[in-house]
Batch of 2 targets.
Target 1
Amino acid sequence: MNDELSLSKTIWIATGNKGKAKEFKFLLKDHQLYFLKDLPDYQGPEETGSSFEENARIKAQALQKRKPKEWVLGEDSGLEVPALNNAPGIYSARYAGLGATDTDNLNLLLKNMKHLTGERRSAAFISHIVALSPEGKNHSIQGKVEGHIIYEPIGSEGFGYDPIFIPKGETKSFAQLGVEYKNNYSHRAKAVQMFLQQIKYKNS
Ligand code: ITT
């Protein structure tokens, strides 16, 4: 069977996060995308991995069991602050506890960074993608954007920690820079761009 991910092909994305879904819709706009919301009875797996990659793989493999004949893509992402031993890292979505909102998580991070200044406010957003084909091929790719955390949230676009993260070389937060900027330069954009490159390269 042909393992090509042709431009018309369907991809199932193992995410229930609306902010991520919106970005994937743009980043993979030449594909027919489905998300976990399209499987209302689906219960996502527990994220028991100890790295972004392991959790992305857990999400992809769980969905592949349900959709064995489709391409599936799992993504695990988050923010790493070296001065906090890389927290919140893989715990970004549950930093302020299970069921925490984006605002709870962001406020806790600001509180835990109150005493940090200058270089110690450095941070990086990571997006790790694991994509599995029905024929058993797998692609594992990481996108990263470096920057720093500001003292108060600013901007209204995006989701999660976007209002407190300023990418290197910029003076505005992800939430101010907006969708178009993130669609080109975010950690997720980089990971997806590399994934599409790999597919193209491997099929040429
Ligand atoms: P899925 O597992 O269903 O994809 P999730 O929200 O639980 O959804 P993760 O476990 O990957 O996803 O956690 C990622 C968290 O990191 C997410 O909740 C955001 O708070 C944060 N995050 C990731 N990418 C981000 C981005 O582009 N902008 C802002 N925050 C982001």
Target 2
Amino acid sequence: MSKKNQSKADAYSFFSCIEKNFDKAARYLSIKKGLLEQIKSCNAVYRMHFPVKIGKEIQVIEAYRVQHSHHKLPCKGGIRYSIKVNQDEVMTLAALMTYKCAIVDVPFGGAKGGIKIDPQIVSAENIEKITRRYTSELIKKNFIGPGIDVPAPDYGTGEREMSWIFDTFLSLSPGEVDALACVTGKPVSQGGVRGRKEATGLGVFYGIRELCKMKEEMLSVGLDVGLNGKKVIIQGLGNVGYHAATFFHEAGAIIVALAEREGAIYNKKGLNVSNVILHLKKTGSILNFPESKNIEDTEKALELECDILIPAALENVIHKHNANRIKAKIIGEAANGPVTPEADDILGKKGVLIVPDIYLNAGGVTVSYFEWLKNLSHVRYGRMEKRFSENMNTELLQVIETSCRKKIPIEEKKMILRGPREIDLVRSGLEDTMINGFHKIRDLKKSLKIENLRTAAFVLAINKIIDSYEKLGIFP
Ligand code: GLU
């Protein structure tokens, strides 16, 4: 984000934006004010400063872990490494995690962490030092553990950082048989689950694909049903944006523009995502990609002609100053909080369909849930049933062949015989979760005549959280 736009976005608190969305939803429910306040507020905010020796200097690092809700345990949410990390941002992102988990039926309270460093400048060796020290600070205060609070990757972090967190936790918790479940998003070789890396991007794809199947909604924005041929713009080519772009491209959508920090590239006939990535790896930038036009001001890419706009980078990128210029008919919030409440109102009036973050980017935490379950059960998905299913399928095919007196071609047979592998189970669990989540929100929107999908998603989340409080018997 440019300095100018950053200051526009900074003019109000991110947390208050989410409160506004929450309050709109609360109007559809008759819930006591005190209980609503309890749901909204952050249960615990841990702000820390710790020293790390970098070269010959001692540097004091500012970091956070916020547990927004304890209505379900453990708390869950990623850790962000960015120079822009601040308390308001971490609190907001933690709150979004609570609502997100409730919507997709993942039994966690929301949390988020952040370390105020620029991972592009700090060396890998020092990032490791900082990550390990941060983890031991969390352990000291009982802010991490398989049943307490389980971090995961977020902006600026990935598998590498998660394996350092796990290793530090394990060495300080000898004999903890469930230690693997203290963090998710680990490499598969260290207890991670297959399919976690691409989960958020794939979830975004499943969610938008489901919306595009709905005749009524497509009619309302003047588009045909289906993803094929739809023009898509993706902002951010990090883990989420890159995978989302790949899945949209494979499904026949046309990726007309891709935007990164340094600028954007545009081709109205479509960009080949894997070639763009090769170019990025080779040159260090997406700019100057053959057969595409460079757009120097990356924010301008959001305003180009398209059907679907996917902001997959940071918060507040669509605000009251650019909302009127957005031409997309559908906005899929792959990032957390990319549209400010003012922009939301402007776009709503223009008839733009916004698929909200608290539903659309829940694929990451959904697969984190699968990873956590795998770690607690100490068994890989598919290990018990793969061979059994294959044997059953073989017998079934034999019966069919005998009774029909016909041989099934070998290639078809192979497809039917195959028992489920871990990746198959994870992806089908994710697909089912995203499809169900979408319809729950859509049905609620229709039955309560709610103005948009975001408010409906908040209503769904609040209802779910109230349910768990009632089950706990905390609020008779
Ligand atoms: N950081 C991701 C998110 O914002 C994933 C969180 C998790 O897997 O716990 O949803």
